[in-house]
Amino acid sequence: MSCCHPGGPVRDGADESPTVEQNGILGSGPHLVETVTVPAGVFDMGDAFGEGYRTDGETPVHEVELNAFSIDTTAVTNATFASFVAATGHRTDAETFGGSAVFHTYATAPGRPVPGTPWWLAVDGASWRHPAGPGSTLDGLADHPVVHVSHRDAQAYCDWAGRALPTEAQWEYAARGGRRGARYPWGDEPPTADDPRCTIFRGDFPNEPTGPVGTTPVRTFEPNGHGLYQCAGNVWEWCADRFSARYYRVSDRTDPSGPARGSARVLRGGSHLCHDSYCHRYRVAARSHNTPESTASNIGFRTVGPRDTRREPISTAVS
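Given the sequence above, the corresponding structure tokens read:
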């Protein structure tokens, strides 16, 4: 568990939703998110600036070779996820467990403080449909990234859409946008108030923001060199890999897929709650992790496939 995104243990006796495989609709869904092909190539994976957290295992920097793959230009949106739920009847972990973690400044209901991270509240009724808690809706948020989705929810969507979660190596390679050794998707210069470049926390974290706190539309800011939007900040994105802080020491050079064992899953990209004084994990090399059932108001995902089949973006209407 990380203070950037608190973990949520599975509650005893909670009924899990039927999987799309059990429902007989595996791979039947249209993935109506724009995708791009990232060409095969070699890159240096890891933190070359010595800015990472030791327990995150961002070093040693190591050369990785990847085959070409397609990747979503944006995180999966509320509109897209709504289509998946309408087609499958999927019930997310947050809905099954009865609540999720919400950042304290925008929670719509009192919650239970998360030990060690009092700015996170465990709010009953928070879910992807009610991102700030009871009474909140998706009005005006159709093109925002879906949140309060667990790794298992993200995988269920992928199963339906015939896609996959990116490996950690695929995610970093795509997020770098063709910039070898860069700190951010756009280069090395940090974001500023005049040129924000990404959705992160502005102000004195965690209680004195100088602007709105929360997600922004997935196409906010300019895309990187591969055409990907918001690979820094906005929402953490689930990856396929299991997490190990020691994995970079033994990683395969070609198309690595992470450790064979481990309970936690990798998260990448940082979120709208990252801040230089607290969580500088919106760098492209930054790593984090959480348990696969964990959900929070700053966790989402995007998907990958073997190669690009370009489709029109989904409608922004959410029922």
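Residues 35-305 form a domain with the paralog of FGE (formylglycine-generating enzyme) fold (CATH 3.90.1580.10). Try to locate this feature in the token string yourself.
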